[in-house]
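#onboarding

Welcome to the new folks! Below is a worked example of what a typical request in this channel looks like: someone posts a single protein sequence, and someone else replies with the predicted structure as tokens. Don't worry about understanding the tokens yet, we'll cover that in week two.

Example request:
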Amino acid sequence: MNQMSAAAIINWESEAVLSQIADKIHHPLKEIIRLSRYIHTYTEQRDAETNRLSAIVLESSAQLETIVANIVKAEKQKQIEIVVRDKFQFPHLYQWSAASEESSPLDEIFTKSDTSRIPKAELSWLLRLERTVLEHLESSILSISWLAQEMMVSERQLFRKIEKYTGLTPNNYIRKVRLWNARRLLEDYTYTNVCEVASRVGIRDPYYFSKLFAKEFGKMPSQYMQAS
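Example response:
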């Protein structure tokens, strides 16, 4: 089967490995769709084309299975990194979102550097950073010095690592997490009072919170709550 053997020519060392995988998957599926439409249009060719379609479906299924197996094998051999971004509560806070198709309110702060490959240790560190900040939003202990100790780095290292992946200072990163978490609480209608939302994300002054929120999202939290 020519289609099955095609999966074997993926260059797993290439930086464009994911594009190659997508290309291998796209072409057989595109052919299946084309043949399906053809069969419905030209009924006199139905038997012959149905047989051909069945063969393509079977070959493509085997090809996709081979591709998936090779992906898992390559990942285990550390040839490529598979990043699961939906573990982050707020993925738009990180620079790799700049390369995605989905727009973000933070696009203006992103650099255009290639962040498509992130070492697993760094990814794990960033996940722990976000989780640590979220878990202590209401606590008075949340500070740069405390966070550096929790993340087991110096304050200087903390600054460098956060800036590298977000383009933000640690203080601005914490502030962004507070505001994005506040927006999520408003979207979920968890609280019906802006003061409660502000307190929940660790900002004691409701007026200051509303000012920050409006600057970040373009309208007051009370207006956002009504729209939600």
